[in-house]
Specification:
heterodimer, A: mainly beta, four-stranded antiparallel sheet, 1 helix, 6 strands, globular, B: alpha+beta, 2 domains, five-stranded antiparallel sheet, sarcosine oxidase activity (chain A)
């Protein structure tokens, strides 16, 4: 079982307590009525789905119930780091070469 | 009809007649005892940082702010569930909802006394029994007496409180209580082996 660090509970918890909530850092357009169909499609349906590092929203649903963001490698399934919702994308990842 | 009326009269002090789920059920196995706890008053409390002091004063118990902790005073236990969320369990028969009603500071208190039931798991094999369905680390270093957390047991969500080194209180929704009690009973029978 994977252990995921919840930034609100400040410790690692078993994966069964968590639920994935899709890609993170997708900002909803401020004036959605004025969006063109193409732009709306990009916002609503199109996701990066990379092979490698992905930024995701997760929810500690059977714990503190809070949403947070996680950096995960889709190849190894390893969680690189987690941070609270609303915080900016980390500029530098721990253990990254650059 | 007469029988129903008599029953209502007996529970006249309570606002609603209470029929607890699985009342009185117990199971004893070598090393652990699983039993349904008597009804208690419970509220779900949501409040911002600024209201904590006022609510703690009104409830008579200091709301814990550290994750996975609880505080107890005079039969009333406050369990940390989230950064702005607590569960208050009162076993002394006082209504925490009434105490919160006097507080003017911003908060949301919802009575959930009848939604939940409490199950006690006690004995030297209590941690093994709970761990049969709960994936959390229940060693005394990671989950000491007084620790509390919302988590899962099998397929059901529970709130787990360690009341002593070898005793747990498992809180679950009453509609899940049959599943939770049966799972714990099976686990208790296995725990000694």
């Amino acid at each position: 079982m994977l252990l995921i660090r919840c930034p609100y509970c400040e410790e690692e918890r078993p994966e069964l307590e968590f639920r994935n909530a899709g890609e993170a850092h997708i900002a909803r357009p401020t004036n959605i009525a004025a969006e063109s169909d193409d732009d709306f499609e990009k916002f609503f349906f199109i996701r990066a789905n990379p092979k490698g590092v992905i930024y995701e929203r997760w929810r500690h649903i059977h714990g503190c119930a809070r949403f947070f963001n996680a950096v995960r490698d889709t190849v190894t399934d390893k969680f690189v780091m987690t941070y609270k919702a609303g915080e900016p994308k980390p500029a530098k990842l721990p253990g990254a070469a650059k | 009809m007469a029988k129903a009326a008599a029953k209502t009269k007996a529970a006249a002090s309570a606002s609603v007649e209470r029929r607890p789920a699985l009342a009185g059920r117990t199971l004893s196995a070598p090393g652990v005892k699983v039993e349904m706890l008597p009804p208690a008053e419970r509220i779900s409390l949501r409040a911002p940082q600024a209201s904590i002091a006022a609510l703690s004063k009104a409830l008579g118990v200091t709301l814990p702010v550290k994750p996975k902790t609880s505080a107890m005073n005079d039969g009333r236990t406050a369990l940390w569930l989230g950064p702005d969320e607590w569960m208050i369990i009162d076993e002394a028969g006082n209504d925490p909802l009434a105490d919160c009603a006097k507080v003017t500071a911003l908060h949301s208190a919802v009575g959930i006394s009848h939604r939940n039931v409490g199950i006690s798991v006690a004995g030297p094999a209590a941690a093994v029994t709970v761990n049969s369905g709960c994936p959390q680390d229940l060693s005394l270093e990671a989950f000491p007496a007084g620790a509390a957390s919302r988590t899962i047991l099998g397929k059901s969500e529970i709130v787990l409180l360690r009341t002593a080194a070898d005793a747990f209180r498992v809180e679950c929704w009453r509609s899940f209580s049959d599943y939770v009690f049966t799972l714990l009973s099976e686990a208790a029978s296995d725990a000694a082996n």
